[in-house]
Write a structure and sequence with these properties.
The chain has about 280 residues and is of the alpha+beta class. The protein has a single domain, classed as Sandwich (Jelly Rolls). About 20% of the residues lie in helices and about 30% in strands. The protein is built from five helices and 18 strands. Strands 1, 2, 3, 4, 5, 8, 10, 15, 17 and 18 form a ten-stranded mixed sheet that branches. Strands 9-16-11-14 form a four-stranded antiparallel sheet, with no helix packed on it. A hairpin with a 4-residue loop joins β17 and β18. The structure holds 2-oxoglutaric acid and fe (ii) ion (FE2). 2-oxoglutaric acid binds next to β10, β16 and β17.
Length: about 280
């Protein structure tokens, strides 16, 4: 018996299970998360961890105007359409190859130096990653491919939402990074949020092979996870949010305003190191 599982279904005439509430699938919002919060996320007994106002609003605003002069590109439009704008290379764009092509490394190098020029001495990514090290209480650093460090910390605009999908490097691009991962988190620090909409929805449901019938482009039909518990995270400016990206997730479309985040993945290795990439 799972005494912790409560059936919160409203029993209507045509009894329909809409959602079962799982108290072990909640959003933990706290100013100073600790290691065990991320461990719970890895273990699947928490849906998301959020640090409200992690980056001060003024720093987010300064970064937004600095990024005005930066060249954004898009994910490979053959894979993500409508196009999603981003600054910096994404490992995702290389999934269809069996390795990371040389263009990735060129793009990474170029993005690192442009980023330095944009942020100057005051690099918000350094702040966020240093904080992650304090929370994790263990080593944190870029994931590597043949010893070369992957790019960490793209700026991504998801104004307009994103289809339900999951991200799991060990399944989608196996054997590419040097590290072995036992869990993967998505991390986003929101530097601009829309006035309305733009929530991150995380479903308590991982991909399984039979879901392939419901594939739509880069994502899946929401009906695949519709019967499962889900959480909704509506970020405010400066919030940092971690979630298990192996769970299906989607971003609700928004009305006015832009939705930008500093985004990377965190892989939990068997050596207790957190490895990062975008
Ligand atoms: O922007 C977000 O809230 C999440 C985006 C996403 O799909 C991810 O970080 O994997
Ligand atoms: Fe994602």
């Amino acid at each position: 018996m799972h005494s912790t599982l409560h059936d919160a279904t409203l029993v209507a005439e045509n009894t329909e299970v809409i959602q079962q509430i799982d108290p072990l699938f909640d959003v933990l919002s706290r100013n100073a998360p600790v290691r065990s919060d991320l461990v719970r996320l890895a273990a699947g007994t928490l849906a998301a961890v959020r640090i409200p106002g992690h980056l001060p609003a003024e720093r987010c605003a300064a970064l937004m105007s600095a990024l005005d002069n930066a060249d954004f590109d898009t994910y490979d439009e053959r894979r993500i359409f409508p196009p999603v704008t981003k600054f910096g290379p994404a490992v995702f764009d290389y999934y269809l190859d069996d390795t990371i092509r040389p263009e990735y490394w060129e793009h990474a190098e170029q993005s690192r130096s442009t980023w330095k020029r944009i942020v100057g001495e005051d690099d918000p990514l350094e702040t966020l990653i240093a904080e992650l090290g304090r929370i994790w209480q263990g080593p944190v650093g870029p994931a590597t491919v043949d010893g070369r460090e992957l790019f960490v910390g793209m700026a991504r605009e998801l104004t307009g939402g994103a289809r339900m999908h999951f991200d799991e490097l060990m399944r989608e691009f196996p054997g590419v990074i040097d590290q072995e991962l036992v869990a993967q988190f998505g991390f986003n620090c929101y530097i601009s949020v829309p006035e309305d909409g733009g929530e991150l929805v995380v479903y308590r449901r991982r991909w399984k092979p039979s879901d392939e019938q419901e594939r739509i482009g880069y994502g899946w039909a929401e009906k695949v996870a519709a019967a499962e518990p889900r959480v909704l995270v509506k970020p405010t400016v400066g919030d940092s949010v971690w979630f298990d990206s192996r769970n299906y997730h989607a971003i609700n479309p928004n009305t006015a305003g832009r939705r930008l985040s500093l985004a990377f993945f965190c892989g939990v290795t068997t050596e207790n190191k957190l490895v990062l990439w975008s």
